[in-house]
């Protein structure tokens, strides 16, 4: 027994004895050493004890539920911007999911390595029990894994579990300048005319790709989507989130038993950013009834070139949303053949609601995806570099929808015909699509 005159000396000696015991035990027992390492360095990697070769079944779906239905995996992406990690985008229950592990498959030796994940639930959950999450794992040294499995335990047989391909592993040159991300299409969406008009406006403004996270839409809308897919403009990401969770059509929680807001819109937006991180110079985040309209420039390319020159180091550009209510219309551009097509004719709605002093207009974004870590709907949550609010005299969001100030008389609205600058090309292009799909 050791007797000490001072408490501080006792504490030091006790710590030395405990440390020595741990070192002796871990030297004798490699498994214990691995367990200690995991606790001190929760993202450290260790080879699977049996050195078993990689197996597992390739994941087939965009949304994959893990055992217990508290974690849903969307897709893993390599992220080497700060350190060599795999960032797995998913949806988790913010309270129930405490621990996850990445099981990496290393080539060419075919061995598995396990890494404890850092679970980062996005701050914009809006009260719902489930939210978008980054499941981030440090990758093993001397290994560029091509696949990963996500488990709740560091000890498991992964042979029958889904294996996810890690995207963005290889650097690529940009294939497009602008990609528009639309999330999510749901509610048997049937606003066919406005959708086609938006698509043709995106193309005229500079978009080469539109990515749509589709839950469901009408049969007529399916025909239109098929046309744009065959054209090479649209990429459809199936989004059957209601097969896994009780979804809300609202963005805020209403104590109604739903699990996640707006059909998992935030998760889809983040996936769209990472999916296009290496193939698109810019990503445009807006809804199908919104168009970022330049006022000083003819298209997005010249606008963004000017904005980047004025704001060096900026990767996030935010544009003010302005409501053009479809309850107020003009007889100009009342095209008879369009009247048989379901949906809104945006050319007839050129009156916008005035600003309200007590309300800040929400914003949508054009971003450099390589500078974004996490995004919400109206702002970026985590990013590298700066954000800038684009002045309204440079561009605004034309948002044709139900009014927010429905009691205002017509004379209180602001007539804004910026959209009409594109009317000739828009009418011609929309007619081409309609005659090949709907009419």
* SSE-based structural type: alpha/beta
C-alpha Rg (nearest Å): 26 Å
Number of strands: 26
Percent of sequence in beta strands: 25-35%
Domain tally: 2
Helix content: 10-25%
The top level CATH class name of the largest domain: Alpha Beta
Tell me, what's the shape? globular
* Terminal Cα span: 95 Å
Mean pLDDT comes to 89
CATH topology of the largest domain: Spore Coat Polysaccharide Biosynthesis Protein SpsA, Chain A
User: Number of helix segments?
Assistant: 7
Keywords: Glycosyltransferase, Membrane, Transferase, Transmembrane, Transmembrane helix
Organism: Chunga burmeisteri (Black-legged seriema)
Family: Belongs to the glycosyltransferase 92 family.
Protein name: Glycosyltransferase family 92 protein
Description of the structure:
The chain is an alpha/beta fold. The protein has two domains: 57-165, Sandwich (Immunoglobulin-like); 176-436, Alpha-Beta Complex (Spore Coat Polysaccharide Biosynthesis Protein SpsA, Chain A). Helix content is 22%, strand content 31%. The protein has seven helices and 26 strands. A hairpin with a 4-residue loop joins β22 (372-375) and β23 (380-383). The protein is globular.
């Amino acid at each position: 027994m050791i007797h000490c005159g001072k408490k501080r000396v006792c504490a030091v000696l006790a710590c030395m004895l405990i440390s020595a015991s741990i070192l002796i035990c871990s030297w004798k027992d490699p498994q214990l050493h691995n367990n200690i390492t995991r606790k001190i360095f929760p993202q450290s990697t260790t080879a699977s004890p049996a050195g078993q070769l990689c197996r597992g079944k390739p994941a087939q779906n965009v949304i994959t539920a893990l055992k217990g239905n508290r974690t849903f995996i969307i897709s893993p992406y390599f992220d080497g911007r700060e350190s060599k990690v795999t960032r797995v985008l998913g949806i988790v229950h913010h309270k129930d999911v405490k621990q996850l592990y990445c099981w990496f498959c290393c080539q060419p030796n075919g061995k598995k390595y396990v890494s404890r994940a850092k679970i980062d639930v996005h701050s914009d959950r809006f009260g719902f029990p489930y939210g978008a999450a980054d499941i981030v794992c440090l990758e093993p040294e001397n290994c560029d894994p091509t696949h990963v499995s996500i488990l709740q335990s560091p000890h498991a047989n992964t042979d029958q579990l889904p294996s996810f391909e890690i995207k963005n592993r290889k650097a690529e040159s940009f294939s497009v300048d602008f990609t528009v991300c639309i999330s999510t299409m749901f509610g048997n969406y049937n606003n066919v005319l406005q959708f086609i008009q938006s698509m043709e406006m995106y193309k005229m403004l500079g978009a080469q790709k539109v990515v749509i996270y589709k839950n469901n839409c009408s049969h007529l809308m399916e025909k239109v989507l098929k046309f744009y897919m065959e054209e090479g403009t649209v990429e459809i990401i199936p989004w059957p989130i209601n097969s896994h969770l009780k979804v809300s059509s609202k963005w805020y929680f209403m104590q109604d038993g739903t699990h996640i807001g707006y059909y998992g819109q935030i998760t889809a937006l983040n996936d769209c950013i990472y999916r296009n991180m290496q193939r698109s110079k810019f990503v445009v985040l807006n809804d199908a009834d919104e168009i970022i309209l330049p006022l000083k420039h003819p298209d997005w390319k010249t606008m963004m070139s000017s904005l980047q020159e004025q704001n060096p180091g900026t990767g996030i550009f935010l544009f003010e949303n302005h409501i053009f209510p479809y309850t107020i219309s003009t007889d100009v551009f009342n095209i008879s053949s369009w009247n048989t097509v379901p949906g809104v004719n945006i050319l007839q709605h050129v009156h916008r609601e005035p600003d309200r002093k007590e309300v800040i207009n929400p914003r949508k974004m054009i971003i450099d995806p390589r500078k974004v870590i996490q995004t919400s709907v109206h702002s970026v949550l985590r990013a590298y570099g700066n954000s800038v609010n684009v002045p309204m005299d440079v561009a605004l969001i034309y948002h044709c929808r139900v009014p927010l100030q429905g009691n205002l008389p017509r004379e209180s609205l602001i007539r804004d015909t910026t959209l009409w600058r594109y009317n000739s090309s828009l009418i011609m292009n929309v007619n081409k699509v309609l005659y090949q799909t709907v009419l």
